[in-house]
Amino acid sequence: MGTRTALILIAIAAVIVRAAGGIRAAPQQGQSNRAMQVIEEAAAALGGKERILAVRTLTIEGYGSNPNIGQAMTPEADPLLWMLPDYRRGLDLENNRMEMSFTRRPAFPAVFDNARQVQRLDGDVAYNLPAGRGGGPGGAAAAPARLGDQVARDRRIEMLQHPLTIVRAALAPVARVTNLRRNGRMRSVDVATAHGDVLTLTVDALGRPVSVRTAVYHQNLGDTERVTTFGAYENLDGIRLPKRIVTRLDRWVEYDIGVMKNTLDADLRGLAAPEATRNGAPPAQAAPVSLTATMVAKGIWFVTGGGNPTLIVEFADHVALVEVAGNDARVQALLAKANELVPDKPVTQAIVTHHHFDHTGGLRSAVAQGLTIITHRINEAWFKEAVARRHTIVADALARAPRPLKMVTFDDSYTIADADVEMVLYHLANSTHGDGILSVYFPRERLYAEVDVWNPGAQIQPHVRSLAEEIARRRLQIDRIIPLHGTQVQPYAELEKVVAEWSTRRATTTTFVAPGEQR
After folding, report:
1. pTM for the model
2. Residue 157's closest CA among 203, 118, 196?
3. What's 35-133+145-267's CATH class?
4. In what helix (H) or strand (E) does residue 347 lie, and over which residues does it extend?
5. CA nearest 122: which of 102, 151, 142?
6. What does CATH list as the number for 292-509?
7. Which tens digits make up the pLDDT trace of 122-181?
């Protein structure tokens, strides 16, 4: 083969390679164009690109429910409901500001009634107004504290859980719209915003947005997603807006909102963060956990700080923890405190009293430390699922150092005892707070610990009667009681006073009086 022929063949090969590259690139460009076409159709379905970009603010007023995820009566039951009679969300689209406010009224026996909550975002600054306040910027002297960067990101994602905001974000020049796919007549695309947040928008055959979804991290649930669906569109001044908005977290409904009124272009300048809040530093990502241990009997310490209290119990050859609420940092602090108090014995057991999320935040961390989990049989399936869930968005202790779950479950009671200490775990049967809850009894010390059913200082005490009935049924002899939602050990007589008071209130408040009748 001559030199000239070789050069010709090389040139032809180069042309073929470039052509092949062009053939491969064309579908990618076409895919991107078709993905952007979905956004254009969604904009048209909402009233047209120019019209939706001209909207300055949107105010949403309505009602609904906020299921209390992680607080069901059993792990498999539907969450208990908070009712939202006065839900309001203000979106300042020009200035990237948002306010979400509501009053939560319990549709279950709660231990408190909520003041109005006001959550705000101003750009990258997240903050809350003090309980009971509702609108208007705070003065510098009373400026609310700036919240962490993760809260700001979560609220930024929340702001995009609406057709108008997600489509506007997708139309921004810096946004990237990719990954068109179909599911029947539905089409979905991924929207990467200017902040780098990635959300998936799904539209129907008419181009109307039907859902927005995004990957999120939850301490108890791990890698999961938040999905908001839209329906019952209305036409308001040339803009189509949903009047039903439902948000799900994982497999549970988080918000179910019926919109009574949408308002366009109201004055929302009051959502600007106070200067003192804006200039304040966000809290540290991982503040150190400070614990205080109080000896309540030989070998038994009541530990407070950093979350729900814990008991550290010393046995002849090991140490047990009662409650590992909190997170990785708090469990590490508990282990350090136990080693400080009992330096020559290993911590080998963690008693987890029930499945509620505020009591299982440290479950995976306890497993990562090799502790044996002891709990009621009702909690077994959920604990296995919680330990098996993926935690890759934020790698927790168990994700970084996987270990198998070691668990002991029981039905009615379980005793751990040696020559020095006897600890009996009892199932709180017929508890009005939830099933599968454990109490802890030390018969030699006549010491009793309970969780969630008596909360000293709470506004309402709906569960103390069932607790008193359980103690009487088991004929326990108690001198002192440790409320594991409290701050100090109490004389048992204090619980008896609360039971007497709230048994009377319960009898009074449940008496129905018809209109026009006198009591």
Report:
1. 0.85
2. 196
3. mainly beta
4. strand 347-351
5. 151
6. 3.60.15.10
7. 999 999 998 655 544 444 447 899 999 889 999 999 999 999 999 999 999 999 999 999
